[in-house]
From TrEMBL:
Gene3D superfamilies with a match to the protein in the record: Electron Transport, Fmn-binding Protein, Chain A
InterPro entries hit by this protein: F420H2_quin_Rdtase, Split_barrel_FMN-bd
GO MF annotation terms: oxidoreductase activity
NCBIfam families given in the database record: hi_GC_TIGR00026
Name of the protein in question: Deazaflavin-dependent oxidoreductase, nitroreductase family
Amino acid sequence: MVLPKGLARFNRVATNRINKHVAPWAPGFGMIVHKGRKSGREYRTPVNVFRTPGGFVVALTYGPDADWVKNVLAADGATVITRRRNYRVHGAEVVHDESRRAMPTPVRQVLGLLNVHDFLLLKRD
């Protein structure tokens, strides 16, 4: 189960207005800066992002069909802003992982309750 589309719409209108100020510096949060695959417009999407040895992992709480995920995959890259630093990323790959092993333990447990099994892996340039 991924989170419902109605919640995604609410978050886009309400919650993300607050998160966009917190995400670039708060631990466990970040901002994905990506270009629209049709419009070419720049978008900034707040996400929960965690470092991996070669880059980052993002839990796809709205599933792999979210527009921002499609944009990052189509462009084969984006910028991740986390802990007040910008990282250029490439090689985006959606993975299905029932064990959620790339996530920190407390996050893994919460994602288990939400039944989230899809993740976006991003490699740092």
